[in-house]
Amino acid sequence: MARKTKASSESTQNDSSSSIPDPLAAAKHAAEEASGMAAGLGEMWNSMLSLQIPPSALSELQSNYIKQATELWNSALQLGGQPAPKAKPLGDRRFADEAWNANPAAAFMAQLYLLNSRTLQQMADKVQGEEKTRQRIRFAVQQFVDAAAPSNFLALNPEAQKLALQTQGESIAKGMQQLWADVQRGHVSQTDESAFEVGRNVATTAGDVVFENDFFQLIEYKPLTAQVHERPFLLVPPCINKFYILDLQPENSLIRYAVEQGHRVFVLSWRNPDASCAAWTWDDYIEHAVIKAIEVTREISGAETLNTLGFCVGGTILATALAVLAARGQQPAASLTLLTSLIDFSSNGILDIFVDEASVQLREKSIGPDAPKGPGLLKGQELATTFSFLRPNDLVWNYVVGNYLKGEAPPAFDLLYWNGDSTNMPGPMYCWYLRHTYLQNELKIPGRLSVCGEQIDLGLIEAPVYIYGSREDHIVPWDAAYRSTQVFKGKQRFVLGASGHIAGVINPPAKKKRSHWIGRTAALPATAEQWWAGAEEHAGSWWTDWSQWLASHAGAQKPAPKTAGSRKYKALEAAPGRYVKQKA
């Protein structure tokens, strides 16, 4: 699809006044680019060279290690190859099976591994140098330590060996079959993928696709109440995942919950980009997706304003779109909900270690708009693998051991099925996002960025904002989510939920699980720590608090529509639509 888009103010523009290439200018340009990349790599290398462990700290670590290793060795010698009569649990679930304590060699190997692991991690913590480089060292050490666990190897895993003997080798045979199946799939299976089908037993809330273009399908859900609020409710999910995390099962569906609360619900379902979409930009996602979805939702409903919600990067995209509209003198949002979304990218936890000038330039030169071979795609599986290795024991090695060494098929789990249903991202869009948010943190600065031809200022968005963060979120740390309160200028409410990036968000009230924190006053101080000092814990889901807040911005009740869409926008196909079924 050919389209001329408005570039951001930072984009390089070609001089259309001349069609004759200037070899000297081209050479100079290439040299400048190479110099920039070399400078970035050189800076990284110099940072590595500057790392050191203080001699006193290193001496203490060595002394403690020798002492503990000697005690471990002497204890093993005293047992004389016999199991300890009252062996203490090793305190690590990878070695929780009784086979580890029953086998003296395995028990010694596990204890030695845990000692080595602790020592390496302590060494990484003692390294002095630039903070981002220290974080990379800690991350690399953790990856090595987790990969090197004796539980990951058949020859060192007595639990897997015992199972092989009990099954007369059947567990090994099944493990090899599952390994070969995963090789063909291209990823480690985390669940029984054959147990789920989008539209059959996940993403089942009834509705219809009422609009589509190259970028997205717009789904309108069938009302479940006789009356609905006059203002419609538009949800923008992350484009790096599929929308049905918000609609996994009826009992944990945020979409269904909103419909049950009497909202006329619309959801943007992103297209899974293929090679024909490789040139799509950030501006395309804003103008031709979110802004278009807002326009169509208003036309169908006949409402001047609507309630909006963005989840994760969907929140970043939605806020950007509303800022573009604000720059055009439009305020279509009656409210804005941001779930675990980043607006201020000052400090973003573990993800920060992957982003610097050199890494961003590498992406720009490989899949960006000016890549030598043209724009490319960031493959969904690459992104999924990266996120899995943020928690390698839970999302990688646990399944390597279970699937391959023990031959145990992973159980059916809807959340992990969704997690493995990856999506691609267009290179130009992804590179813009990396550079202007994670690297240069410009989105929060009024007037710094030009998007869709407009200088944007998020402070011009007049809608009240409900900001949610998850306390154990490793992708959007809750203090990073809180920093959004310092960017928007209107009325705001911040709520903190327990658990992580997904489990914290998808926490229906009926489950009566976890808890959430609300400030004792409406004040939103400058830092998350100050807010936390004045927060009060409440049992159960945050959904009920949010539902009350949303209802206060949803307007009066009116009879629910009998059919989806309108005369202009007729139902095209049943929800969840075909876009969400496209595989990466």
Q: What can you see in these coordinates?
A:
The protein is 41% helix and 12% strand. The chain is of the alpha/beta class. Among the domains are: 56-166, no CATH class; 207-344 and 427-581, Alpha/Beta hydrolase fold, catalytic domain (Rossmann fold, 3-Layer(aba) Sandwich), CATH 3.40.50.1820. Helix 1 (23-49) runs antiparallel to helix 11. The longest helix has 27 residues, at 23-49. Mean pLDDT is 90; it is low at 1-45.
- The residue fraction in helices comes out at 40-55%
CATH class of the domain at 207-344 and 427-581: Alpha Beta
**β content, as a range?**
5-15%
Strand line-up of the largest beta sheet = 15-14-13-12-7-6-4-5-2-1-17
Average predicted local confidence, pLDDT: 90
Number of strands: 17
Main β-sheet description? 11 strands, mixed
Enzyme class: transferase
EC number: 2.3.1.-
Pfam family, one: PhaC_N
Protein name: Polyhydroxyalkanoate synthase
Gist of the model:
It is found in: Cytoplasm. The protein is of the alpha/beta class and about 575 residues long.
Helix and strand arrangement:
Blueprint: H1 23-49, H2 55-79, H3 98-102, H4 104-126, H5 131-147, H6 158-166, H7 170-185, E1 207-212, E2 216-221, E3 227-229, E4 233-236, H8 254-260, E5 265-270, H9 282-301, E6 306-311, H10 313-327, E7 333-339, H11 357-367, E8 377-378, H12 380-388, H13 392-405, H14 414-420, E9 425-426, H15 427-439, E10 450-451, E11 454-455, E12 465-470, H16 478-482, E13 492-497, E14 515-519, H17 528-533, E15 535-539, H18 543-551, E16 557-559, E17 573-574
Parallel strand pairs: 4-5, 4-6, 6-7, 7-12, 12-13
Antiparallel strand pairs: 1-2, 1-17, 2-5, 3-16, 8-9, 10-11, 13-14, 14-15
